[in-house]
């Protein structure tokens, strides 16, 4: 863990305290990620009828663990950091009451999804005193005596809300999918004419990523990063395992040759999908397969998609798509690579496909850029290249996509960048 050094007699800076806060958060994040992985997980949020029955539900205290930017916006004097992703913890300390409504058509019912999301929130707005160099005995009110209030707390918050489905004939109503950035935890079903919600109307959401409390001790972690198949041999004493599977990243497209004022731009490969599951039996001797990295596209040609990774036949994550096929235009460009989609798995801890490679864009010569590779749950999507004829960049993390090549006006075709290989991590518990 990094620690700030301050010396006797030194005039301390606000960045000393800010860096200490950030370093502590980073250290706790890495410890949590080592224990839990990097997929979104939740703990708590038990949803029940209200104490006095009503058309509402009570969501208990809970926590959410979610991979986020280190700081999406500036943290006082520390600049925003959107390059690094860490596992952040959002905490809801008190119960939350959510109101819902019954259908207005006889014979119909509606499903509400109780969903949660992590969010950084700057709170505690106060007009702060500032040092007044011209009259030290009288403090300024706000920066430069402006009277402007400023946030005094960056909170790791939990957003909790009820998302309504579509009212339909009872028995045919569907539960809505979670909104972007949210995960579902419970489903509340209400029929026409209902005046209250009771516990019998509330069920867990089937794909809720609750933390599994095994009550067991972590004995070993086996990591498989070399593409190919291996038979899994558990560490002696292993009684259950948590498996993380990441598909290989797609290769970026090579850029075509360009004539005249045209430029040639390839796009990035997509990131591999990610899946996670807990197994309590029949896991010894299963085959671990690590998907191959998608090969870089040759000059003027598409690359290869990433390989599928799996653990046996139950935990499967597809590879990311390659950069799209070349399409002639002025300037020449290509379509982005597709992300990998997770196949069904045993258990309920699943993350879907990784990010797609970005669409290659060019504005005006000589300013142009190829498509970036999609980042996996471990980051590492290859950055775009451009400004001159350049080969695409390779992915820098497992499962990430390579970027496309870039060809300047009247330039020769360039190769794309390779994706990153897949990964399988097995946490063993006694």
Overall radius of gyration: 26 Å
* Count of helix runs: 1
Helix and strand content put the structural class at mainly beta
Q: Overall 3D geometry?
A: globular
Helix residue percentage: under 10%
Nearest-integer average pLDDT: 87
* Measured distance between first and last alpha carbons: 29 Å
SSE run: HEEEEEEEEEEEEEEEEEEEEEEEEEEE
Number of strands: 27
**Uncertain residue segments:** 345-352
Characterize the biggest β-sheet.
Answer: 5 strands, antiparallel
Which strand-content bin applies to the residues?
25-35%
Which keywords apply here?
mainly beta; 27 strands; four-stranded antiparallel beta sheet; 430 residues
Question: Care to describe what's here?
Answer:
By secondary structure, the protein is mainly beta. Helices cover 5% and strands 32% of the residues. The protein contains one helix and 27 strands. The protein has one helix at 14-36; strands spanning 41-44, 47-49, 56-59, 62-71, 81-92, 96-99, 108-123, 129-130, 140-141, 153-164, 168-169, 183-191, 202-204, 218-224, 228-231, 240-246, 264-265, 274-279, 287-290, 309-311, 315-317, 326-327, 333-334, 361-364, 367-369, 406-407, 423-429. Strands 7, 10, 11, 12 and 13 form a five-stranded antiparallel sheet that branches. It starts with 13 loop residues before the first helix and ends with a strand.
